Amino acid sequence: MKHHWTTTAFEINDETITVSYPTHHTLLEVLREQCQLTGTKHGCELGECGTCAVLVDGEAVLSCLVLAADLEGRKIETVEGMQQANNLHPLQEAFADLGAAQCGYCTPGILLTARALLDEQPDPSRQEISEALSGNLCRCTGYHKILEAVEWAASKLRHDEVAPGDEVFYGSKPENSSG
Amino acid sequence: MADPIQESRPEAPNSETPTNPAVERRYISKPFRRVDGRAKVTGVTRFADDLQFPRMCYARLVRSSVPHAMIANIDFTQASKVEGFLGSLTGEALPVPFGILPVSQDEHALCIDRVRFVGDAVAAVVATTDDAAYESALEVKVDYEPLTTIASVEEALETPEPRIHDYGDEGNIHKKVSMRFGDVDRGFAEADLILEDTVYYSGNTHLPMEQHAVVAVPEDDDRVTIYSSTQTPHYVHRAAASVLGLEASRIRVVACPNGGGFGGKSDPFNHEIVAAKLALDLGRPVKISLDREEVFYCHRGRHPVHMKIRTGFRKDGSMTAQHLQTTLDGGAYGSYGVASTYYTGALETTTYKLPTYHFEGVRCFTNKPPCGPKRGHGTPQPRFAFETHLDKAAEKLGIDPADLRLGNLAEPDSITANWLQLGTVGLRRCIEAVVEGSGWRERYGKLPYGRGLGLACGAYMCGAGLPIYWNHMPQSGVQLKLDRSGGIALFCGETEIGQGSDSVIAAITAEILGVDLEDIRLCVADTDLTPVDLGSYSSRVTLMAGNAAVQAAERARDLIAKAVGERFEIPPERLVFSNRQVFDVEDPDSSISFQEAMIIAEARFGTLGTVGSYTPPRSPGRYRGAGVGPSPTYSYTAAVIEVEVDPETGLYQPIHVWVAHDIGTSINPVLVLGQVEGSVYMGLGEAMMEEQAFRRLPAHLSNALVHKMPSILEYKSPTFLDMPPVTTYLIEEPDPKGPFGAKEVGQGPLLPVPPALANAIYDAVGVRIDQVPIEPSMVLKALAAKASGEIGRYGPPPFPEIDFGPTLLVPTPEEGGDGTATNDFSSKKKSKMRGATGTMSSRKDALKSKGSSLTTEN
């Protein structure tokens, strides 16, 4: 089969990038192969795992389900664009410090999906975070450290920092907990 | 005669007091940021599929569409016309069999004459782009001559011919085991209550988010580098050398950080060997990146296990005897299966006092993706059987389930009936923590109908006591390079799979040398550059690589202290390493920097470097099969789950989990908590929904046995919305066997979760679900049975009648045994056949074995 190629200009992480690629390729493939932005991962290529989530015009989308050719001129943000200069985004800081990234493979997709949530809802409830991230699978963490990290980062972004309790760093003490 | 292994064993590192007590610890037991934390949140971590090389090409495997057949013909005519096609490969090019266990060298890089399951790799094509490789693979035409499909243990037992493999104990039985520890008959005769249950644990898979990938890069002089998402680079190295017919020194295996493993990346895989072969043939780098469907075919996941458990109890709740029988549906290849079979019995004795024990197990070959090790390897299934069984016993005996367990706890430092040497046992405090946290005493058995609490426990190894192939060498090594820069390079073969092993060895080294984590550069999992570590499996890395790091770091500290002590005329034992300083404990103000100390040491001794290694203590068991189960020590876990059940629909939801884990010492409590919570999550997934299921296609579509759901959408796993809150308690009782007293945490906390859920459902609505995953329909059926006056239970069919073969008779320590069997006459003869470097280590050995029995070439 002879493939047609397309050339498109995107604004990726605040840089205008022009790339040529086989027309049938998804945004995921173009980011990873043409742009060498391998921070965006893939877990299924079918829209089932959430691993490949990136932001398109601020909205979290699954890059494996989007044709790159449909995104001319659009603003795309990947995990590589989250930090400002050498400073991590508060979500990145919190994920690193709380062990919300274990193997780290689902992490880029979850960071960006969480970022889209916090842009819209700076003070989400735990249920709102769970709903926003429910399309992102993580096999390592059991999700708790991720919830705690998103809450911590959200409070920092609101300039109203609520540091996680001791139990988040050391575990609970039997006498202090309740059913 | 003295045991030569014992004699050649390096002295165990002094892990009890590796740092000077005068100084507060900086990292150990502190919640520091993991060393790879920043790379993982910035997208910098390079997984295998992220690697690109100039002139790299792409290969795809052609996989069987039929479950069991002879290969009649493979036609590449159309495939080779695809633009970009560079070449193809079939099994004849790689005839040497391989497999993770020396006793199961039954896989080929590509099937030679027959396929054994839908998804078995038949051929490979390589092309300039992945698109071209994909299209070319679709055009490969394979003709098959079908053979009878064997779909289950029952079919395997009834159908000895055709044999899926022409090795194994008989017919389609891969392995039979029967071992009796102590006078089990007398034990049952002394019992006041004998309870028998039949239980089933479905198969499930690891589902790592990262699909397996490999890039093989040809280097100078016929050398090749294999970059792979593997948990066990050392075993890949051995398999690749054997199959490719190259000296191991010509092959470099680099394990990239794994995007999740859970045991699923612990075997050497055909894609790794095929990529290396193609790279060597083409002289170009070759990448193979599996798609999600292929990951389901690689599998090596949880064995489906059918179990019959029978236990004798005295009125006071103490146990007198247990007889456990298991069948394992092994799938199409050996993988770790012989070990898995033993593991369905081995750890049953580690939690509670069990004076006599009879274990029988059988693993069958079936035409399905091969099963292997998944988190808890072979032990979650019997643990589910045991802990639900105990719940029933507690009710019959009128003893609270928590008290029944507390009254039977295994003794610290004791030897079990099957000759496992236990270390510290923190289970009492674990049970007390979850009982208190959950309000068990006030609420168990007293919650309103539809709500319930369930308790269960578990134990797991901190590293397998024996390596996978017989040898006398250490299981883990660490090498340190230090110099005038003040920096330390740490080389270790361990593999980061997300569990935090890089952080563990770095923190141990930094703690002992009193430096910052940032002063340490890691080089890991690289068979060219790093000392051998056997891999990230059996929860072995913290204890084994950690102890090797303790030894290497203590030797470096002692070397530097000697040089500094000589320079300043201070006895070296008075020197303390802390906060990047070295000072005299009697004159703390006159310190020098760590870098100055290294300059002094380099001037005194020349180039600085130290090594450390770890070999586990020898286990007291001497019977055939005693190699599976021993560990330097064991971790313990207890969990209570609260569940809400809707009796109208059978739908249920765990609403809280309390879990306590005996960690010995937390190297980093944040990472420990992450492992506990992740284990609870994975245990809930197995208990509630995850199942590797198969179905037969309709007759007009070949009647083939196919995977029911090789996709993430169909293979249900818990999402954020399914996960209940988890309260975690870390029980710290330092174990002298572990570095700084640390034990494992990666696997053990999964074990109590499935039985705790089943026990909670019983407390909620009064019905027993004796299999997992627990589907709402099972709850409804059990409720309906109960309502109609039958037993309120849903469970598997009766356990099949099986001849497990001759029983090995092993007297227990209590009976004055010496660890050997009284009726085993074969083991001595066998050991003489082993080579100095291990069984089947060379191509010659492997070829010989191939000629003998493993394949059926024409």
- Mean pLDDT score of chain A: 95
Q: Compute the CA-based radius of gyration of chain A.
A: 18 Å
User: Helix and strand succession of chain A?
Assistant: EEHEEEHHHHH
Regarding quaternary structure, what we see is heterodimer
**What proportion of the residues of chain B is helical, as a percent range?**
25-40%
What Rg of chain B, in angstroms, do the CA atoms define? 27 Å
What's the arrangement of strands in the largest beta sheet of chain A?
Answer: 2-1-5-3-4
> What general form of chain B does the structure show?
globular
> Largest inter-chain interface?
A-B, 72 and 79 residues
Indicate the overall shape of chain A: elongated
How many beta-strand elements of chain A? 5
Strand order of the largest sheet of chain B: 3-5-1-12-9-10-11
- Strand tally of chain B is 32
Count of helical stretches of chain A: 6
What structural class do helix, strand and pairing data of chain B support?
alpha/beta
The stretches of 5 or more residues of chain A where confidence is low (pLDDT under 50) are: none
Features:
heterodimer; A: 179 residues; alpha+beta; five-stranded mixed beta sheet; 5 strands; 32% helix; elongated; B: 858 residues; alpha/beta; seven-stranded mixed beta sheet; 32 strands; 23% strand; globular; disordered C terminus
